[in-house]
């Protein structure tokens, strides 16, 4: 774990999950807080990536059209 992340302030959160799920996690030695944090980080990263693609869709499409019409940049200088 990144030491910067480990040193971050934590705040208590009240959650409700299915009892059977909680019991299985405890029996398997799963740290609920760490698992939740990792899952949230993964979901946040995924959604931020989707937002970036959405915000830059026009530029991405324009670039793809340019490459389709003219080929990749500096293609004339390739030796392969």
Give the topology string: H per helix, E per strand. HHHH
Arithmetic mean pLDDT? 92
Q: State the shape.
A: elongated
The total count of helices amounts to 4
Instruction: Summarize the main sheet.
Output: none
Tell how many strands the DSSP assignment holds: 0
Can you tell me the residue ranges where pLDDT is under 50 for at least 5 consecutive residues? none
- Assembly status: single chain
Structural class: mainly alpha
Q: Report the helical percentage.
A: 55-70%
Q: What gap, in angstroms, lies between the N and C termini?
A: 42 Å
Which percent range describes the beta-strand content? Answer: under 5%
Using only C-alpha atoms, the radius of gyration works out to: 22 Å
